[in-house]
Amino acid sequence: MLTLLKLLKDGRFHSGQALGAALGISRSAVWKQLQRLEADLNLSIHKVRGRGYQLAAPLELLEQAQLADSPYPVFIHESLDSTNAEAMRQIAAGMQSPFAVVAEQQSAGRGRRGRKWVSPFAENIYYSLVLRIEGGMRQLEGLSLIVGLAVLNTLRDFGGRSAGLKWPNDVLVGNKKIAGILLELLGDPADVCHVVVGIGINVNMIVASEVDQSWTSVRLESGCTINRNDLIVDLGRKLQGYLVRHESEGFAAIQAEWESNHLWQGRAVTLIAGAHTVDGVVIGVDQQGALRLGVAGQEKVFSGGELSLRLRHDS
Question: Is 177 considered catalytic here?
Answer without folding.
Answer: yes
